[in-house]
Amino acid sequence: MDRLLTEIETRRAALVSCTQDLIQIPTLNPPGRRYRDICDWVGHRMGAQGWQVQMVRAEGAPGDSDRYPRWNVICRLEGSRPGECVHFNSHHDVVAVGHGWTKDPFGAEHSDGRVWGRGACDMKGGLATSIVAAEAFVALRPDFAGAIEISATADEESGGFGGVAYLAQKGFFDPARVQHVIIPEPLNKDRICLGHRGVWWAEIETNGRIAHGSMPFLGDCAVRHMGAVLDEMEATLFPLLAGKRTEMPVVPDGAKQSTLNINAIHGGEPVQDADYTGLPSACVPDRCTLTIDRRFLIEEDIADVKREVTQMMERIREKRPDFRYEIRDLFEVQPSMTSEDAPVVRTVEAAIREVMGKSAEFVVSPGTYDQKHIDRIGRLKNCIAYGPGILDLAHQPDEWIGVDDMMDAGKVMALTLAKLLT
């Protein structure tokens, strides 16, 4: 084991360079830019070392188009004898840059022991770490048993339907093909993430009647109806959710309760193009739409989650004349949680103890990630998230990943391979 840890240490510069190369490919989602470029980069690197490389486009998946095709790459290396397969899955897409940066978001600057850039933490640093860890392991243990897979997949930031969900539907995560999955999401190098809360996204629409703005009494303002919805949420729904607590080890502590985020609200006349210089027309809004993001606990049932919102809307209807509404499901994901006794959990826990001299902390993510598809579609339960980086830095300006953290996580990943593929 000492030789393997030393081998990782010799690859520090390679790990930094790999991370920089990945960050410098701006795989922005939406709309889905440069997906093929980053898949080609990973495929060329691994293919040159003898790995089998498959490029898979998620044709027909949400977001896939000829202009922005949803490309994924899966690299597989067979061992010298039969055994199990360990799969490292990382998403290659990154969110919008946003404002407030003092670094070049795609410059991949290496300074102060960090690599900076959009996606450094979430999660190109994790992808690079899994690549270098696998390379180091294979260099010392070319006679390993089983197989290793590394994938870089699309669209996790927008649900993963053009990435892991599509691959799971095609059998890439069939338990007969893959036995252990590690997703290098940035949840701290001494934590093992067992799963995530559930999510229900929905649109609530209030309906009114259009009329001239100078005579609003002849119409029915949908925005005012939505104001009543917001008032009722504050009075009854938010207090209800605050009282729900979970036994799941969700981090941070605030996410141990049920939560609801008002993601967007739109009512009245649509926003005009930026070059429009006229005034809005005088109309009473006849519809208003609210998008909600409801995160729920493993102790809750999705039917009850939806019923709470419907009951809230019915209470409003009893108090407001002419109140009409619709609730439209957008998507839903059940909570997922791998057992602490699962083989991949026990193995990674032992590796963390060897590398860092401490026990791993078991956590659950407040938001979903691609484990949901591996669990629900692939029917593979032996899956965790483990990777370098601090989750709070994800989607922030001046995002970064620590090189020492990547090195330690790389040692854990390499030791995990050594323990599972002997």
From TrEMBL:
UniProt catalytic activity: N-succinyl-(2S,6S)-2,6-diaminopimelate + H2O = (2S,6S)-2,6-diaminopimelate + succinate
PROSITE patterns: ARGE_DAPE_CPG2_2
A Pfam family of this chain: Peptidase_M20
Tagged with keyword Metal-binding: yes
Alphabetical UniProt keywords: Cobalt, Hydrolase, Metal-binding, Zinc
SUPFAM superfamilies in the cross-refs: Bacterial exopeptidase dimerisation domain, Zn-dependent exopeptidases
Domain Peptidase M20 dimerisation residue range list: 195-316
Superkingdom of this protein's organism: Bacteria
Its EC number(s): 3.5.1.18
Main enzyme class: hydrolase
Pathway(s) where this gene product acts: Amino-acid biosynthesis; L-lysine biosynthesis via DAP pathway; LL-2,6-diaminopimelate from (S)-tetrahydrodipicolinate (succinylase route): step 3/3
GO molecular function, one term: metal ion binding
InterPro entries in the cross-refs: ArgE/DapE, ArgE/DapE_CS, Bact_exopeptidase_dim_dom, Peptidase_M20, Peptidase_M20_dimer, Peptidase_M20A
GO biological process, one term: lysine biosynthetic process via diaminopimelate
Signal peptide range: none
Cofactor dependence: Co(2+); Zn(2+)
Family per similarity comment: Belongs to the peptidase M20A family.
The protein's name: Probable succinyl-diaminopimelate desuccinylase
Gene symbol of the encoding locus: dapE_2
